[in-house]
Each structure stands twice: as structure tokens, then as C-alpha cells.
């Protein structure tokens, strides 16, 4: 579904994760929609930032958006699109879901030890005993994706056509969970787990994931254009279609179940507000960024990954994402009040570009 996070402090891993991102995208896919909107090739916003991002990310991108927040202010650039054009942010959606979990814990609705079976109808399935903490830290034992014939066929069909295999509704998601085993190695990145986490948080609040996200996270921050899309028919003129790494137009990522794991769209203006609230520590559920467990040679909070002393000797907290036609990265250096967001409408990793931009900012301090 989306890119597996990697240690951004180690350049040798950039190409490994780029390859993983591409492989995962090829295994999943997105929903068809008629051809892309006509968009201007020029950049809007900060021209110096646009030039820097073009250089770091490479020239062969359909469109790019960039946000830089430092104590000196906020800079944005949108290349090949308008500031209100909505991009898919892929697994950066998980970062939003992590904020929702932290917020629900603070409200006393759930605890890290709350079991899925307390919130979702999973009968006596093994997944019923999985805790919310395990889902948020990828330690549940759930697979990356459901292991069934439908998923295999959908993945194959995407490789041929870019058609959407992620149209599941909640009932289908629960059926997948009931049949899932927990024998995947702990620490395996699980999109299925985050789909279930979002559904569980909605259930705990007596609503659904999309409405809960708006009520508690995007609404309070003024992110009016940031939301999951459950049906391709709901996409509008502002919704951009991305391209695969091979240059094919990729269908849109939609579905009722995938929002918490990778189904959110957003635009430059909203992501700038989001970045500002991350930089100053005022985002709802900001405790999600705090490390809770080991994650390979890194640490993980509620979705958010921490690389110690990665940027000019300071910790980097981050998440990335990849869909069939988009790649995304958000990185926060809490000690310096700095946030960088990059989203590309071509499915080639922007992780290295995001890290390089953060390093440039650190070197200029």
C-alpha cells in the first residue's frame, strides 16, 4: 500500500526504501478516474524553495508541493499544480491516525492496552486480542496486507491496469481481520493494522474514522481540504491524478477502509498549517510523536518514527508514504521547531530530498 519507513539518517538506505516503496505500490494500486486536470507547469509560492526542491527531487516529476517551517516563518511552493490542488499523501495518513490515537488516550476513551475485540466485532479471532499499542507500533503480528486470493488478484490486476483493489468497506475489513493470523514477525509494517486502528478509534468514539478525523484533528487545525476519500465518484477538479514511476497515469486511491492507513488527500495550504502545528508542538494528539517502542534500529511512537541525532545532531521524527502515483515525506525536528513536507505526484521516493532539505536548514542555522 505505502512505503515502509526507513532510517533517514543513513543515506545508503535511501535506494533500498525507494525500491520497497515502488514494489509496494506495484502490489496495491488505485482506482481509475477520467484523465488528469490540466495544470500549469510553473511554480507558485516561494521561488527559491521551488528551485531547491526541483534540484533535490529531480526534474521528472508531474507535480510537487513543498512546505518548510522554521522559527523564522513558513515557506511553501507548489510546482505543476495550484496551492489548493489535492495530492494523495499515502502512509502519511498513518501519522494523522497516530494523532487520533494519542488524542483518544488523552480523553480517556481508550488506553494503549485496549484490545481490538473490545471495539470491533471480531468474535474469537486472534486479531481480537491485538492491542491498539501493537497496531500503532507495528508489533501486532498482523501481515502487511490480507493474505487471501482477493488481494493477490487485485495486486496482479493493478500491475496490469492500475485498477483499485482498495474499495473495501468496514464489513469487508472486519472479515479480513477475522481470518488473519498473527504469525508475521513483530515489527512488520502493517497497512491492515492501521486500517483496523482507525476503525477501532471511530468505534470507541461512536462514529466513523473520517468524521472523527475532522472533528478532532483536521477541523481544529483548520485543514478544510484534508480528508480520506471513500469513493472515486467523490473526487473533484482539485484532485490530482499522479503517475507511476514508469509514467503511467495512476488511478486514485479510494475506499471506505483505507483512510487510516493511506487514503487521505491534502493540499499545500493545509499541509503548511499542519507543519506549523507540528513544529510548535500544538497539534492535537502531539504526544503521538513521542517514542514508545524500538523499531529496528530506530524508535516508533504512535506511527511516527524517530531517528536519533539524525539532523545536525538533533532527533528527526518522521513518516513517509507511497501510493501508485504519489510519494510523500513529513519530517519534524522538535528541538529546532522545524518541519519539512514534500509530496510528489510521481511515485518516486522523496525521502532523500526531504532529509537533504532538513540538513540544508540545519546547516544554515
CATH superfamily: DD-peptidase/beta-lactamase superfamily
Order of helices and strands: HEHEEEHHHHHHEHEHEEEEEEH
Major sheet description: 9 strands, antiparallel
- Structural class assignment: alpha+beta
CA-to-CA gap between the ends?
37 Å
The domain tally reads: 1
- In the sheet with the most strands, the strands line up as 1-3-2-12-11-10-9-8-7
CATH topology: Beta-lactamase
Nearest-integer average pLDDT? 88
DSSP summary, beta strand count: 12
State the helix count.
11
Task: Provide the β-strand percentage band.
Answer: 15-25%
- Supply the CATH class: Alpha Beta
Supply Rg.
19 Å
Describe, in short, the structure shown.
It contains eleven helices and twelve strands. It has helices spanning 14-26, 47-57, 92-107, 132-136, 149-161, 170-178, 191-204, 209-218, 259-262, 268-279, 351-364; strands at residues 43-45, 64-70, 73-79, 87-88, 227-228, 264-266, 293-295, 298-300, 305-311, 314-322, 327-333, 338-344. The model is unreliable at 5-40 (pLDDT under 50).
Notes on the protein architecture:
GO terms for molecular function: beta-lactamase activity. This is Beta-lactamase. Belongs to the class-C beta-lactamase family. This protein has a single domain (11-364), classed as Beta-lactamase (3-Layer(aba) Sandwich), CATH 3.40.710. The protein is 33% helix and 16% strand. It has eleven helices and twelve strands. Strand 9 and strand 10 (314-322) form a beta hairpin. The longest helix is centred in the first third of the chain and has 16 residues, at 92-107. The protein is globular. Mean pLDDT is 88; it is low at 5-40.
Amino acid at each position: 500500500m505505502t512505503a515502509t519507513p526507513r532510517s533517514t539518517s543513513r543515506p545508503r538506505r535511501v535506494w533500498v526504501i525507494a525500491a520497497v516503496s515502488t514494489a509496494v505500490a506495484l502490489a496495491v494500486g488505485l482506482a481509475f478516474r477520467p484523465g488528469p486536470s490540466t495544470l500549469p507547469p510553473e511554480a507558485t509560492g516561494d521561488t527559491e524553495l521551488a528551485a531547491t526542491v526541483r534540484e533535490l527531487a529531480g526534474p521528472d516529476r508531474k507535480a510537487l508541493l513543498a512546505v518548510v517551517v522554521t522559527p523564522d516563518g513558513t515557506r511553501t511552493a507548489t510546482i505543476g499544480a495550484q496551492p489548493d490542488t489535492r495530492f494523495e499523501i499515502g502512509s502519511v495518513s498513518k501519522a494523522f491516525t497516530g494523532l487520533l490515537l494519542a488524542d483518544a488516550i488523552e480523553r480517556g476513551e481508550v488506553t494503549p492496552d485496549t484490545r481490538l475485540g473490545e471495539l470491533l466485532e471480531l468474535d474469537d479471532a486472534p486479531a481480537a486480542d491485538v492491542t491498539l499499542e501493537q497496531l500503532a507500533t507495528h508489533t501486532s503480528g498482523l501481515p502487511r496486507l490480507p493474505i487471501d486470493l482477493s488481494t493477490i488478484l487485485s495486486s496482479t490486476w493493478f500491475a496490469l491496469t492500475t485498477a483499485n483493489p482498495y474499495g473495501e468497506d468496514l464489513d469487508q475489513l472486519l472479515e479480513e481481520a477475522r481470518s488473519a493470523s498473527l504469525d508475521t514477525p513483530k515489527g512488520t509494517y502493517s497497512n491492515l493494522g492501521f486500517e483496523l486502528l482507525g476503525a477501532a478509534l471511530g468505534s470507541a468514539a461512536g462514529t466513523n474514522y473520517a468524521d472523527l478525523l475532522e472533528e478532532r484533528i483536521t477541523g481544529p487545525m483548520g485543514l478544510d481540504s484534508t480528508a480520506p476519500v471513500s469513493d472515486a465518484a467523490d473526487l473533484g477538479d482539485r484532485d490530482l491524478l499522479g503517475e507511476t514511476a514508469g509514467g503511467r497515469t495512476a488511478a486514485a486511491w479510494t475506499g471506505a477502509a483505507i483512510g487510516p492507513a493511506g487514503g487521505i488527500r491534502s493540499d499545500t495550504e493545509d499541509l503548511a498549517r499542519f507543519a506549523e502545528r507540528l513544529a510548535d508542538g500544538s497539534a492535537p494528539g502531539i504526544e503521538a510523536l513521542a517514542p514508545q517502542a524500538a523499531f529496528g534500529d530506530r524508535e516508533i511512537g504512535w506511527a511516527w518514527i524517530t531517528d536519533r541525532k539524525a539532523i545536525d545532531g538533533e532527533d528527526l521524527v518522521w513518516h513517509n508514504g507511497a501510493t501508485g502515483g504519489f510519494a510523500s515525506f513529513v519530517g519534524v525536528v522538535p528541538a529546532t521547531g522545524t518541519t519539512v513536507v514534500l509530496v510528489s505526484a510521481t511515485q518516486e521516493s522523496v525521502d532523500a530530498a526531504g532529509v537533504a532539505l532538513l540538513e540544508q536548514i540545519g546547516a544554515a542555522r
